[in-house]
């Protein structure tokens, strides 16, 4: 319950006014319930012609006895008085109408209390999803290299849904049932403290059973939700690799892997659900046992020579006792539901409480233009291995100056650190040693958005969205139609866009799946052109294209690179021959630098790479 309260304290405070309304209406509903059931006493007295043990001949003052005695005496007095004045059948009708009216008010208050909880429940779930999504967009790229996309999707969908159905559905229980139990319990004490004291013997036993099974349920729930993430990851990987799966005739292999994880999830969730189904039968059985024992003990009090409580009052006591059992049963059901939700909350918190590695500086320096140079000063960078906690150094003592307006190319074998070097400029990662400077300012001291506004990216894989050409080109930029079309023309994309079904309003499919590789890349270049950044980063922008597409894309890139500072990674050395400087990386170090002709004369790593491509 402590963890449950902590979750509520994190997310419920913005909805305090709804909470106050729910508490007020719950109190009103409980009080009206007590008074409506109290009409049973005079009804039973009239129907069975019994009295409370003595005839009430006068009204008692409040200071003449206990609250219970005064209420019982005065109720008996008025029942006898109006029965004699109006007749028994007329009085029954009046009491019945009073019961109907109070029931109408009670059910109305009950509805309003539940209606007040609904905005809290739906609002909290919305807030959790928003916080999750905002945290996902704020986390550094390094976080996602360690996590599977399927697992993150599972936490945002399945786990949040479990929080809704388990924790949020129990909010009503937390703010309604304690009020009902407290008011009903006070009423039971007023009616008969002896009976109530006897009843209390069974409540701790009842609670112990519920808590024991609930703790076991949480353990199974954590395992089941983890397996659900594995299932979602299998689906995500399969959808992304269908072409390879079919090419290698591996449908059976993938089906077997999925069936194994899916069956394990089924077995665990089955155990969770079976254990959860114990809640209602167990609470029903324990409640019935309590009623039977109380009925026996109360019967001895009623049937003794000196009755402690009258028969009609004892029936009223049983009705109130049965009413208190329902909130207790809801508590028992919640004790099963809440652990499942808390297990999901733990998984969601792994994202919500993940450390944001790339933080905005406390006092960021804001810049709008790039004036002089980019500098890597004694830069070293390493990826941390989570299992061994060892650092794997990818870049070692890099020193490089890129003046404004120049084009610098990075070449080298795969794994030499070229792409990592590019990722340090927009702060996708932060260096462990040394500094990355723009116009003499450490990028860690710049506002993150200010820094990235200066940079345009064109990557090997054109990352597009399931939207129209227009919205993909203008992504993150406010632009009119003429600007969008001009950018597309420069990128050699306007012609094929206009040949599509709806022109610039044509949807390009998931990740641009309706387009060829060259078309996707040209749309990506058009997006960079429209952003009009002073610094351009090209990461293998043409390596995956055929010759014709490469020529069109390369032409678009040359237009984009004019008057811009460009840092390019390329495996095809023919695309970077005209660069102002070429840096050759080997095992994380710059081992050669110079123009194409200078490096060919050196006859080192660069010439070896060049000759291999010429063969």
UniProtKB/TrEMBL annotation:
Subcellular location: Cell membrane
GO molecular function annotations of the record: ABC-type oligopeptide transporter activity; ATP binding; ATP hydrolysis activity
Keyword check for ATP-binding: yes
Taxonomic superkingdom: Bacteria
Oxidoreductase is among the record's keywords: no
Membrane-topology descriptor: Multi-pass membrane protein
Domain ABC transporter, first and last residues per copy: 374-612
Keywords recorded for this protein, A-Z: ATP-binding, Membrane, Nucleotide-binding, Transmembrane, Transmembrane helix
Chief location category: membrane
Transmembrane segments annotated in the record for this chain: 20-48, 85-105, 174-191, 197-214, 285-303, 309-328
Pfam family, one: ABC_membrane
Cross-referenced Gene3D superfamilies: ABC transporter type 1, transmembrane domain, P-loop containing nucleotide triphosphate hydrolases
All copies of domain ABC transmembrane type-1, residue ranges: 20-340
GO cellular component: plasma membrane
Protein name: ABC transporter ATP-binding protein
Organism classification: Bacteria, Pseudomonadati, Bacteroidota, Bacteroidia, Bacteroidales
